[in-house]
Amino acid sequence: MKSSRASETRNGAVLAWQVAVGAIAFALWQTLVTLGVLDAFFVSRPSDIAQRLSTWVVSGTLWGHLATTLEESLLGLTAGAALGISLGFGFARSPMVARVFDPYIKMLNAVPRVVLAPLFLLWFGLGIWSKVALAVTLVFFVMFFNTYQGVRDADKVLIDNVRMLGASERQLVRHVLIPSALTWIFSSLQTSLGFAMVGAVVGEYLGATRGLGYVIAQAEGTFDTTGVFAGMTVLGVVVVIVSGGVSKLERWLLRWKA
Amino acid sequence: MTALELESVSRQFVTPDGGSYRALDNVSLAIPAGAFVAIVGPSGCGKSTLLNIAAGLMPPSSGSVRVNGERLSGLNRRATYMFQQDALLPWKNVRDNVALGLVLAGVASADANARANEWLARVGLSAFAAHYPSQLSGGMRKRVTMAQNWILDRGMLLMDEPFSALDVHTRQRMETELLNLWEATAENAEVAEKNNSPRAQRPLTLKKTVVFVTHDLEEAIALADEVVVLSAGPASHVVARHPVTLDRPRDLFELRTSEAFIDLYRSLWAVLRDEVIKSQRDA
What we know:
The structure holds 2 protein chains of 2 kinds. Chain A has helices spanning 2-34, 40-43, 46-59, 61-93, 95-110, 113-124, 128-152, 156-164, 169-187, 189-206, 212-221, 225-253. Chain A is an all-alpha fold. Chain A folds into 2 domains: 1-38; 44-253, MetI-like (MetI-like fold, Orthogonal Bundle). By secondary structure, chain B is an alpha/beta fold. Chain B has helices spanning 47-55, 94-104, 109-122, 138-150, 168-194, 217-223, 252-255, 259-282; strands at 2-14, 20-32, 36-40, 62-67, 70-71, 79-82, 156-160, 209-214, 226-230, 238-243. Chain A binds chain B through residues 157-158, 160-168, 171, 175-176, 179, 182-183, 255-258, and chain B through 55, 57, 75-77, 79-81, 83, 85-87, 89-93, 100-101, 104-105, 132-135, 148-149, 152.
């Protein structure tokens, strides 16, 4: 397997470069602050951020906040996906309904979610559900549009072939329409997951008692830039780890693609 | 017995600018059970439309279709259809694709898989059962499609330029495999009749009726018992029907240079040529 070894070496080189880019950026940041070109009050410095992170980890305060944010994201993703997929499917199968609701869907999708956050706080309280609701409004549309498109885009020849092979309407849905839509849905998992986390964090930022968004908001309130950057770093790391997992899942689910 | 009968079938389409386009005009055609009939005609002559109507995928604007004497409404459940494009489900592996028709009919999956394996062996793809269509060559995908259709053992095969996307050599190989499969079932039917076994009592013989649409006259003559020539569109109609009297089994690698083949080709090309010229003048 010469080719796979070659691609492994290439992956190794990519990883090395990725680490190098990060290291250089942090070193530059640290140096500029040390030399006094940048003011630590405004941009903090990597060594302080690292210290803060280790304090959070050692004291254990980080995990509770992180768990809250992940829980909200996951619930938002699941509920948004369930709603988006079922409605997208229904709309694609009944063109009349789709046409009637089309302007409303567009209108709702155009609403900036930040505007909704205070409303959701009012409706669902300071707990996790107002954040879940915000995540749902983001995830729903991604899932909805992809499902709709996936079902509408199902290959006419595949449909005709399966019907000629004897499929009933229900079997057609199961063997062609759902798998066809799933390819679109899986391909949008990355985006949906990112949106779910954005929804959760923005919700926490605007009013909560726990979660990474809350931690960042607290730090900003006291001009604690180190706290803000430390919170952002945690978010960034979590997103990279989770999206790596999603990529693996996506590759496995769509393994039939060449 | 007549397997497929078209009675003055016409078909119109609404064009994007609101006008109407007459694809087929008053086509009448009777195809006897167990015959291999090729339909040729220039591009855009409504060959595929004709096949779609025979399959029940599209109703005729006027006229009627009879299958084994019964008027067709809805899909033609006595036929399988091999499309010009790839029609395998990309998310199912080769075995599941071949077994699909049986699964849809409610056959238990163990049974369906066993029969799919038999068919994969017959088309020489046993080693690829767990592969996905995207991992196969064009010729392999066509063989999977043949297995997918033949496993249902329906009496009629509708084929719409099934091999047109393949290179010349793969194409000849696929044509040979098609004839081998078809002639194998033909022999079974004859054996059954000779032995006067209970199977022979069934009104429908095991020999399949094939309607093979192509724009390639050579392919049509090489495969078929009869070649039907359609006129250039619009308003295509049957301009000639010509029996092909070449002996079977045919050796497709030698056939094309034989005298009898060349004579047939000449006389049919004389008819088809005019239609091709007409279609090019209008285009």
